[in-house]
Design brief:
This protein is of the alpha+beta class and 168 residues long. It contains three helices and ten strands, in the order ααββββββαββββ. Helix content is 16%, strand content 35%.
């Protein structure tokens, strides 16, 4: 090695650790929760504002029980989602079109991870929860989008009726 290159290497070596310390001494803290995002089927609800609780069971027969639900626009529903099966299931709320697109994506990328306020993954024998504010009338669905479950019919419907007394 040429003496000039050796000299440069020796002079630069003490600087190699500087970027590691440029981060500072502050501890990492979790970021503030993201703001709730309005969707076509509603917005994340606040648990303290839930106006009713609905318990849904998910089974390895690829079914939700109950599989139909009617709510009034403006209701905040706490879904208690029980996995009574032996395999992982999830509940995802959305429009039929959004759920079909998401199911197709999950078929292509089965290990894709996601975590939105309108979905919950539930291990076998466990219980999960979604709190959702239905602020728009319409017909929506909930489904399990784990590979093959949606295609096997693991879905249900939520009909959101206009708020009583609202103009039509």
């Amino acid at each position: 090695m040429k003496p000039s290159l050796l000299l440069i290497a020796l002079l630069a070596a003490p600087l190699a650790h500087v970027p590691a310390h440029a981060h500072g001494e502050k501890k990492h803290v979790a970021a503030a929760p993201a703001a709730a995002e309005q969707t076509a089927w509603g917005i994340a609800g606040k648990p303290a504002q839930a106006t009713r609780t609905v318990t849904l069971d998910m089974t390895d027969a690829m079914r939700f029980t109950p599989d139909t639900l009617t709510v009034q626009a403006g209701e905040t529903v706490r879904f208690v989602v029980r996995n009574t099966g032996r395999m992982l299931h999830e509940m995802v709320i959305g429009t039929p079109d959004e759920l079909a697109k998401h199911a197709a994506m999950m078929a292509k990328f089965p290990t894709m991870e996601h975590d939105e306020a309108y979905m919950v993954h539930v291990d076998p024998g466990k219980t999960g929860e979604i709190v959702w504010h239905f602020n728009r009338a319409g017909s929506f669905e909930f489904a399990c989008l784990i590979g093959g479950h949606y295609e096997a019919g693991m879905r249900g419907t939520v009909t959101v009726t206009p708020k009583q007394g609202a103009a039509k």
